[in-house]
């Protein structure tokens, strides 16, 4: 038997010509290399594991710790549909994104030739555009949009909306950081930054809370009432067995606004909330108050309140000055003195004496407490509150008939946000905050 030895250089040339033959075309959305499929699979598994662990932590582990119910915690983790939905969403999105990104990037590199090598600045810029924009940025956007239907694996619509709004605000932060990194924000004054979103958001919250409480997100209402004692909150001494249930925040706000707009000496008329919200009465010297607020009026009789507005606004204390002192003392303890002072000053301006537009100014001034916080935290906190502003504005647009909700709109929001986030993640990773939660998660999932 005769053995024929092949020159290694000739074999390498033959192997390269065979693998680059036009007949060796990749499958749709899958690279021809098995390594890419294995990489995408690892990425999907990491994403599923991380998201499932986060869902189990918030849905099962933390409630078990708070309630001290540890029996069957492992079984509850394994049967929690919400955690599996979150993991399936993250895992499917990461897997599809990686496969589609590699395939589109491969196609562009194959059919769009890079500029010829040269020493000129224009040639270098063109090469950089080809490398970052054509082979990374555009494939990342397309891959994120194609993989976005995986968001529907999350069963709760409320959680999908919360995540979509959070990612939208983070996408805004990332885009701003990328523009700043590239030098496009140099025209802005140094004192101006993302912190300005806090006063703008507070002005929107204040006006929406006072004039359109039905458009306020429940989370925002709970945050406002939970930190405004003794204002618009149930007094500890309120006895529901004697006076009936304490009214909702929306009922209290409607009654307070109608009372503050009425002439001095006017008498309240108890009526259903929908009628009181219309703020119309044909009887002179009267104003409408939701029926549920009658329980507060009965409980605060003889406490020395100056008006029905005061009874609804601070039922715990009959003195306006006393209620203000309690509020400022409580807020000083959490080190938000400027917010306390400005908010207390705004409380002195009764709604009947200040136009509706004045509440925007009150909220804007109250939002200046952000200037007391550390500059490094201002952008993160501002974008955290921005999502509430977006939801308030959207609900008011829907209520006014200028917009309407569409099916799977949260999926479209998620797809657009992730397209911006992943596009910058692939091209300008230095523009993202390395210590942020999303940045850490993306690095853990997509970087081998």
- Apparent shape: elongated
- Helix-strand makeup class: mainly alpha
Query: How are helices and strands ordered from N to C?
Result: HHHHHHHHHHEHEHHHHHHHH
Low-confidence stretches: 21-32, 333-342, 348-354
Number of strands: 2
Number of helices: 19
Whole-number tally of structural domains = 3
The spatial strand order of the largest sheet comes to 1-2
Largest sheet: 2 strands, parallel
Q: Please state the CA-atom Rg, rounded to the nearest Å.
A: 30 Å
Oligomer classification: single chain
Percentage beta strand: under 5%
Average residue-wise pLDDT? 78
Question: How widely separated are the two ends?
Answer: 48 Å
What percentage of residues falls in helices of 4 or more residues? 55-70%
Question: Can you tell me about this structure?
Answer:
By secondary structure, the protein is mainly α. It folds into 3 domains: 26-188 and 416-446, no CATH class; 194-229 and 319-405, no CATH class; 240-313, no CATH class. It has helices at 8-19, 34-67, 73-78, 81-111, 121-147, 157-182, 197-211, 218-226, 240-243, 249-261, 273-278, 294-299, 308-313, 320-333, 337-348, 358-366, 375-400, 409-427, 437-446; strands spanning 267-271, 286-290. The longest helix has 34 residues, at 34-67. The model is unreliable at 21-32, 333-342 and 348-354 (pLDDT under 50).
């Amino acid at each position: 038997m005769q053995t024929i030895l092949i020159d290694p250089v000739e074999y390498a040339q033959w192997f390269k010509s065979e693998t680059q033959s036009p007949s060796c075309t990749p499958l749709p959305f899958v690279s021809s290399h098995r390594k890419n499929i294995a990489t995408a699979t690892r990425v999907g598994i990491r994403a599923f594991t991380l998201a499932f662990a986060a869902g189990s932590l918030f849905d099962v582990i933390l409630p078990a710790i708070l309630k001290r119910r540890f029996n069957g915690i492992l079984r509850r983790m394994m049967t929690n549909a919400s955690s599996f939905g979150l993991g399936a969403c993250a895992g499917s999105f990461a897997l599809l994104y990686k496969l589609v990104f590699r395939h589109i990037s491969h196609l562009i590199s194959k059919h769009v030739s890079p500029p010829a090598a040269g020493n000129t600045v224009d040639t270098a810029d063109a090469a950089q555009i080809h490398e970052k924009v054509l082979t990374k940025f555009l494939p990342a956007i397309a891959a994120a949009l194609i993989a976005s239907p995986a968001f529907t694996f999350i069963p709760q619509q409320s959680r999908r909306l919360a995540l979509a709004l959070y990612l939208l605000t983070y996408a805004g932060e990332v885009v701003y950081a990328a523009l700043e990194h590239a030098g496009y924000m140099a025209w802005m004054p140094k004192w101006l930054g993302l912190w300005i979103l806090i006063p703008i958001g507070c002005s929107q919250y204040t006006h929406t809370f006072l004039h359109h409480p039905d458009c306020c997100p429940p989370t925002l209402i709970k945050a406002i009432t939970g930190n405004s004692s003794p204002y618009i909150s149930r007094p500890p001494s309120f006895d529901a067995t004697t006076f009936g249930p304490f009214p909702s925040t929306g009922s209290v706000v409607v009654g307070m606004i109608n009372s503050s707009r009425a002439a001095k000496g006017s008498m309240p008329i108890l009526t259903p909330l929908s009628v009181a919200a219309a703020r119309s009465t044909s009887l002179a010297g009267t104003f409408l108050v939701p029926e549920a607020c009658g329980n507060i009026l009965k409980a605060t009789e003889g406490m020395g309140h100056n008006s029905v507005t005061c009874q609804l606004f601070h039922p715990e204390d009959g003195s306006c000055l006393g209620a203000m002192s309690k509020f400022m003392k409580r807020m000083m303890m959490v080190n938000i003195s400027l917010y306390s002072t400005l908010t207390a000053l705004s409380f002195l301006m009764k709604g009947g004496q200040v136009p509706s537009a004045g509440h925007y100014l009150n909220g804007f001034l109250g939002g200046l407490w952000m200037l007391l916080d550390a500059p490094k935290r201002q952008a993160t906190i501002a974008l955290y509150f921005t999502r509430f502003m977006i939801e308030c504005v959207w609900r008011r647009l829907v209520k006014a008939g200028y917009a309407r909700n569409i099916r799977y709109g949260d999926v479209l929001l998620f797809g657009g946000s992730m397209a911006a986030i992943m596009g910058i993640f692939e091209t300008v990773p230095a523009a993202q905050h390395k210590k942020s939660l999303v940045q850490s998660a993306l690095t853990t999932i997509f970087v081998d």
